[in-house]
Hints:
The relative contact order is 0.16. The chain has helices at residues 86-97, 102-117, 138-149, 178-192, 215-228, 240-250, 254-260, 278-287, 295-300, 308-314, 334-344, 356-370, 404-410, 437-455; strands at 5-14, 22-31, 34-40, 50-55, 59-63, 65-66, 121-128, 152-159, 201-207, 232-236, 268-272, 290-293, 318-320, 388-392, 416-421, 424-428, 431-432. Helix content is 35%, strand content 21%. It contains 14 helices and 17 strands. The mean pLDDT is 96. The protein is an alpha/beta fold. It is globular and about 70 Å long. The strands form three sheets. Strands 1, 2, 3, 4, 5, 14, 15, 16 and 17 form a nine-stranded mixed β-sheet that branches.
Amino acid sequence: xxxxxxxxxxxxxxxxxxxxxxxxxxxxxxxxxxxxxxxxxxxxxxxxxxxxxxxxxxxxxxxxxxxxxxxxxxxxxxxxxxxxxxxxxxxxxxxxxxxxxxxxxxxxxxxxxxxxxxxxxxxxxxxxxxxxxxxxxxxxxxxxxxxxxxxxxxxxxxxxxxxxxxxxxxxxxxxxxxxxxxxxxxxxxxxxxxxxxxxxxxxxxxxxxxxxxxxxxxxxxxxxxxxxxxxxxxxxxxxxxxxxxxxxxxxxxxxxxxxxxxxxxxxxxxxxxxxxxxxxxxxxxxxxxxxxxxxxxxxxxxxxxxxxxxxxxxxxxxxxxxxxxxxxxxxxxxxxxxxxxxxxxxxxxxxxxxxxxxxxxxxxxxxxxxxxxxxxxxxxxxxxxxxxxxxxxxxxxxxxxxxxxxxxxxxxxxxxxxxxxxxxxxxxxxxxxxxxxxxxxxxxxxxxxxxxxxxxx
Length: 457
């Protein structure tokens, strides 16, 4: 049986393919869960099995946004410790985070996913590393929330085994034993990872950071990931304090230390990577190690400005990340397109740092590269999965910006008229079609209050 078709016409299209092909007025044909055609002008008039034909005049079509770094659980602790650097912020919030449980994490994941999806994210990522004893099935809660929302998910099953008594930052009751962490990570891979082309859920191995995990957890975590054929994720080179920690404890900078434990390679991506010298960038480029750039969080925590132009020039895969909503209260990835461009222009390269189209690429194809899914998503090309967004650009907010990509990246947040994941509508006219946004907000508020009560001294 032939798949049903959806036809989208009369919109500007930014394909973000290898040639940055754009059409001032073009069409897309979706057949089943794949892109069947994309090109200039109207779609063929004689297509069979068309169940929906959309006149997208006034819109820009782009690939769905791909988030490469997040901490969903932090949705419950937004607006706290607003004037702290990273280490002080972590110390302030770890005691609260160590009291999370399954209902809290489900509510936080629902809120985080809903906020991203309604803003054009079609592939989400969560790095979850806090597993208090007796907390329930947190991994299942996150995977279930993504399934309900209808977006693709890469869940990086994190872990911490270096508590305060061992020189780490998290309290001892918030960490796992080495063997327990590895066993639970392997179980998450075995239970939830899907390696297929159209996978909705994939799992990565993700010890939290050099200052919250042991060297052995990093080393054995890398071995586990490669034995299972999944990707590896951690935080790296986020702050000067982290660099000092690594040099004092291990006698190496963060990149060299992570390399010594097997944590460089084309199956690895790291969050932040703010404080990297030329040798670090060369090591990432040589090994194909990816970067999740989180400009808003880096600014919120005063971490610094990542050398994104230099990373890109060296050939390092770079995507965008929201990071946790306790350090990026908006929780929206499309705002990171703008912030990536603006923040990087404050760095050494100034106005030549990034263009609007490079920012869009970071949020789409770059993210797909970082997650190892660039053959499936991240650009609008025939045969790829039909993950795409229609951004409305004919409102007052964008009325005098002639270039649609500049309007999307530099202008006010554009409304999402339609977001498809594998050809299925997740957003219509700015509202989620899969979950009740108001109910998600009510549940999250209730769970945030419950967490605050539990954490009260």
